[in-house]
Amino acid sequence: MIVQSTSAFLATAGIARTPSPRQTPTGSPANIADTVNISKAAREALAASSSSSAAGNDKSVEARLAEIRARGPINRSREDQDFLFANDKRLAEITAQGKPPEQLTADELDYVQKATGLVNTFANLSSAEKALYDKAVASGNTEAAAGISQIALIRMGGHMAGGANGTTYDPIDTSITAANIEKYFRHSIVDPSGNAEAKFQALIGFLQNA
Prior knowledge:
By secondary structure, this protein is an all-alpha fold. The protein has helices at 2-17, 29-71, 78-87, 89-96, 106-116, 127-138, 142-154, 178-183, 195-209; strands at 161-162, 168-169. It has a domain at 122-209. Strand 1 (161-162) and strand 2 (168-169) form a beta hairpin. The radius of gyration is 31 Å and the shape is elongated. The protein starts with a helix and ends with a helix.
């Protein structure tokens, strides 16, 4: 093995360079010091070169990641996607957890949306609302958490949405409360299946019991 061969070589070299009691080094102390100094300088130069190379590689990776993100998900190749997931450290960490989306924290979902080019709905949630989302996820109430996700989606439409009885309201400036969900948010999504309504009702119940 290479390690064994290297070890043997170093051991042999060490023995060969060790003077016997009756031997004296052929070089003067000044020459020996010069040799040590040159060796140290070489090591420092190598370390600096390696550090510079690593920094250059990091910049190259970041530049390509920025390019891929700016391109958007539709225009990305399979190679782009593979590079993104392999080199975006935080994205890789989140993915490595193996959790389904509904079990991720709000900040994790926010990052995944931004990094992968998905519609960044979670950017529409305040820090307090993200904390509320995390509390719902931690309690196992994924339906209530999904209700918050629906409100984040509604806010993507801007400062005007439809409320009860043909009224309009500003979803971005309307806080997430049981009363506001009942009066405003639940009327902004038309879903004949009833799934959206079920999630809003779960969120109302969660808020009332919090």
